[in-house]
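hey m, so remember when u said the tokens were messed up on ur end? i reran from scratch. heres the input so u can diff it against urs
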Amino acid sequence: MHSEISATLAALRQQQPVVHNITNLVVTNTTANALLAIGASPVMAHAPEEMADMVSIASALVINTGTPSETQRAAIRKAIQAAREQGKPWILDPVGAGATPYRLQLNTELLDLKPAAIRGNASEILTLLTGKPTGRGVDTDSSSDDALNETLSYLQQRAAQLNTVLAVTGATDYIIDGQRIAKITNGHPMMAKVTGTGCTATAMTGAFLASSNDPWLAVTASIACLGIAGEKAAFAAKGPGSLQMHLLDELYLLDVETIQARLSLEVLI
């Protein structure tokens, strides 16, 4: 898969897609810089009044519900409507989907609007798909092969029903559509100590979706590239603070040779 992932990254850098992000207040600067580092051009607009215009200049839309409000909710709906009308892909990051009833309702509404991809941890993804807050999933059940296989089978069925790609990220990442499952073990535990690493994965995935005709490959390439960059950044970092700096550098420096040497990916189906 390293050649396909390298080619997808090369296409992104050649196209330099504009990615419109409606994201949470905590990570705006982090994700904008990551998009620039990987080769895309970020827009971080939230005003409902300009959503249609902003989507018209973008190649993909990223929706992150980490700090929801009614103003943001209105902006999200207008942006998604414009993206669907213009045939542009959008990705949902249902941050803390089950933390409050308001947040779960919002994310459930967005699920019905047919995102091209959904990225979250196992708890967020399963909460979104079942409508019930849960802490169970591929991250907590990995000690049991039967439980893991059952969860992956369910996720693949739902991905097929929704015609979307699910990116379930954690210590091990699973990229799932109706026909394929990729298992990625790149990354480093220190990445969990930096706010916004998952949100960065989502934002980057928007850029990859804009640059590829294969959504599953686009999502797989995005998650793999971030994991590889995170590994290299952690090797150079003294702690979470310097990891952030090195992560941007490694995204910028990522090349074919590094992907070939470091990619840890298995296609399960």
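this time it looks ok to me. Residues 136-143 have pLDDT under 50 and may be disordered. if urs says something different then somethings off w ur setup not the seq
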